[in-house]
Specification:
Elements (H helix, E strand, L loop, with lengths): L7 E7 L3 H12 L4 E4 L15 H13 L3 H4 L4 H7 L5 E4 L1 E6 L15 E5 L8 E4 L1 H14 L3 E3 L2 E8 L3 E7 L2 E12 L5 H7 L3 E2 L7 E9 L4 H7 L15 E6 L2 E7 L4 E9 L10 H11 L1 H7 L3 E2 L7 E2 L5 E3 L3 E2 L2 E3 L1 H4 E2 L7 H19 L3
Parallel strand pairs: 1-2, 1-10, 2-7, 4-13, 10-20
Antiparallel strand pairs: 3-6, 4-5, 8-9, 9-10, 11-18, 12-15, 12-16, 12-17, 13-14, 14-15, 18-21, 19-20
């Protein structure tokens, strides 16, 4: 193994979402020679958009520990907007929940029996953020390139074998090439690559939760507070405007999320019970329309919305729950969202990913060469 060869790297990372790109930047800062591969091309649509105080705390810690001062600005809405207004984000003041019942318009009382608002920040300036992932992920890739890290997009890993190091066969620009790497990190966000390369299976066994999602990005989504005002439902004692939060409309069979961005687009999606046989016979659009007809207030919000050009269509998942049999092995490891997923409730995904990045980089850095 010639470590001076142009096709040799200490670490090869597959997947250039925010977790893969940050991992590449931190390992590079730790003195390793890194290569980042991307099967697609930026900017690209992605969800997993809602940050939390824990996520912000890790961003600040990584910024200081690895001398990435620009990263600190993304840990608060105010500093994000001031430093990078061109990167779309949204204010996230907390978590808001409103309970709906089939066939009934939304109602509540003076005790807010069908409402729950959980504040996570003291002001808009100090707020958490909703990340427009297409913007933020693409920005991090520019930082990867600026750092001198080798980055190859439209590149697919086709085969892998390991002796002293990994030897990866890749296909890039319709050409077959070889990359050699001491360590491999799967940051692709699914179990497909690990199954293809290592035969590691993913399954939903042992999960009690069974759900799927229908979602997209939309323009012209009415503000929920406007609808509440029209119904003479008081909002004066709310600790924040729930439209600028992770807004959840709770249903009997699941829930609807609404995350707003400051360019007036919104991420909207249903998470629904996958055990209900009804959905198996309905198309994506039919399922969406069925939920609107069942819940009048939801229909009032969504009846006239328009799809945003990115992605420009409704999207439907299979079962959300999955878990890889192994999350690491000799000379490789996978980041949390690659290893598995349970449910998007409470916005834990970004924090889980950042925690995984922080811990994995520490382990590699502290034990490199051993």
């Amino acid at each position: 193994m010639n470590k001076n060869s142009s096709n040799y790297y200490d670490a090869l990372i597959a997947g250039s979402g925010f977790a893969g790109s940050l991992t590449a930047l931190l390992l590079h800062k730790s003195g390793l020679k890194v290569c980042l591969l991307e099967k697609g091309k930026h900017p690209r649509f992605a969800i997993g958009e809602s940050s939390t105080p824990v996520a912000d705390m890790i961003l600040r810690k990584l910024s200081s520990k690895y001398d990435l001062p620009w990263l600190y600005d993304f840990s608060r809405y105010g500093s994000w907007e001031k430093s990078h207004p061109e990167i779309v984000c949204g204010i996230k003041r907390g978590f808001s929940f409103f309970k709906h019942y089939p066939g009934e318009d939304f109602t509540t009382d003076e005790n807010h029996k069908n409402e729950l608002l959980v504040a996570a920040s003291s002001s808009d300036v100090e707020s958490d953020t909703n990340w427009l992932r297409s913007d933020f992920d693409a920005f991090l890739v520019t930082k990867v390139k600026e750092s001198g890290i080798d980055y190859f997009e439209l590149t697919e890993i086709t085969k892998a074998k390991r002796n002293v190091a990994w030897e990866f066969q890749i296909k890039r620009l319709d050409k077959n090439e070889t990359i050699v790497s001491s360590f491999f990190i799967d940051a692709t966000g699914s179990g497909f690559l690990a199954q293809k390369l290592f035969g590691i299976q993913s399954s939903a066994n042992d999960f009690l939760t069974n759900s799927f999602s229908i979602f997209s990005h939309f323009n012209h989504v009415p503000h929920w507070t406007e609808i509440l005002n029209e119904r003479k439902i008081p909002v004066d004692d709310f600790p924040y405007n729930p439209d600028w939060s992770a807004l959840h409309h709770l249903l009997d069979e699941g829930w609807l999320w609404m995350l707003r961005f400051n360019d007036e687009r919104a991420s909207v999606g249903f998470v629904l019970n996958g055990e209900e046989k009804l959905y198996k016979d309905l198309s994506t659009e039919e399922t969406w329309k069925a939920k609107l007809e069942k819940y009048p207030a939801i229909k009032c919000i969504l009846k006239d919305v328009q799809l945003h050009s990115q992605p420009g269509k409704m999207m439907k998942t299979g079962r959300l729950q999955r878990k890889m049999k192994n999350s690491f092995g000799e000379g490789w490891a996978a980041l949390p969202n690659t290893v598995g997923f349970v449910d998007p409730l409470f916005s834990s995904g970004i924090a889980h990913s950042l925690s995984g990045v922080e811990n994995l980089v520490d382990i590699i850095k502290d034990n490199w060469g051993k």
